[in-house]
Amino acid sequence: MNKKRIILTLILIIVVGSAGIFIGKWSGMGAEGEGYEELKIFSEAFSLVRKNYVEEAKPKDLVYGAIKGMLSSLDPHSGFLNPEAYKEMQAETRGEFGGIGIQIGIKDGMLTVIAPIEDTPADKAGIKAGDRIIKINNEFTKDMGLHDAVSKMRGAPKTSVTITILREGWKETKDFTIIRETIKIKSVKYKVLEDNIGYVKISQFQEQTANDLVTALEKLSQEKINALILDLRNNPGGLLNSAVDVASQFLPPDKLIVYIKGRKGERTEYRTEKDGLICDVPMIVLVNEGSASASEIVAGALKDWNRAVILGTKTFGKGSVQSVIPLSDGSGLRLTTAMYYTPEGTSIQATGIVPDILVKLESKEKSKAHPVIREKDLERHLKNNEDGIQEEEPKEPEEMVPVEVEEKEDTQLQRAIDLLKTWKVFKELPKAS
């Protein structure tokens, strides 16, 4: 019975999720509580396997396998992290880990690349969004959990991993042997564009992202920028607190940025605390199908407060909060524990944020692009149950998500620049007398 209690008791935690980070207490269910009969069945099965399986089975392997199976029956963002994967997850939130640098999901029962991270081994090897990963080190990925797949592809720098890829249009698979590196994700890049328009691109929301953004905005302010473009395209999200801190740089004090609601309906609000660094210049936020989770929090807040114009294509649609809960042996659960809502109370789960100005890819860019994958396409995704929300039925995607393109070929960025130029022209027009 002690083993049952170890499995079921969740201790005081530091929660670090792909959509949030906060501290709280989690209590497990005692053996006498609801679900005891089901646990009795598990105990019977556990004993039968131990006694009768053709080879000796390690108890920890059986327990880990059972937990993985339990979490895999939930939504696609919940899962089990063994001690090694848990440590890697902590490193990832700091923006540094050993691996090949891809974001993956499950689509049509197959492990699928959502996007390679720019300038990583996977990106350099030619891995593309929409690629199906058939094998990892010659092990078939069918029925392999998302977190298992991540764990197998990560590892010490200078070691190799072979992934077998099937790409749309290919008649047969192809092996890619990739040397792992220390993936250091520089989450904030910035520069000054023509006509003193500031440009900031955020690739992920990590622990240092908000501090890096402050540095970028201070330097852009020294350049006397008169408008700003915030690029959140292909940003898969990250830490909730980081998203809140980023959005706070563009809003006045005491503005609601996002609130989350758990299973029992309890509401937790996240607000700005002081004046942001840049609250007065015209601003455009670029988004696309790869803008997810924390990216959608920032875009949603700036849209609801009419602080920025949202331009691009509809976002990914991930409106759930994951809590990573450590267990007593160093492993952990990544568990979906809440849904988040924009300041106006909108849930974007499986629906995404619709831009104020829709700008799709030009035909010459489509030739460089790959199929779109959104939250609604992932198996077992949580439905959006808000009143009046009509979630689209999953279908074979007609839209395409772009690879990185040159600035002059980036029609979305160029449209943003043109709009800000026009904004400036109209602002400076003399009033009719």
Throw out a few tags for this protein:
433 residues; alpha+beta; Pdz3 Domain; 2-enoyl-CoA Hydratase, Chain A, domain 1; 3 domains; five-stranded antiparallel sheet
Quick overview of this protein structure:
The chain is α+β, with helices and mostly antiparallel strands and 433 residues long.
Layout of secondary structure:
Blueprint: H1 2-8, E1 13-16, E2 21-24, H2 36-52, H3 59-72, E3 79-81, H4 83-93, E4 96-99, E5 102-107, E6 110-116, H5 121-125, E7 132-136, E8 139-140, H6 146-153, E9 160-166, E10 174-179, E11 181-184, E12 188-193, E13 197-202, H7 209-222, E14 227-231, H8 240-248, E15 256-262, E16 267-271, E17 283-287, H9 294-304, E18 309-312, E19 320-326, E20 332-341, E21 357-358, H10 363-366, E22 370-371, E23 400-401, H11 411-428
Parallel strand pairs: 13-14, 14-17, 17-18, 18-21
Antiparallel strand pairs: 1-2, 3-20, 4-11, 5-6, 7-8, 7-9, 9-10, 12-13, 15-16, 15-20, 19-20, 22-23
Helix pairs in contact: 8-9
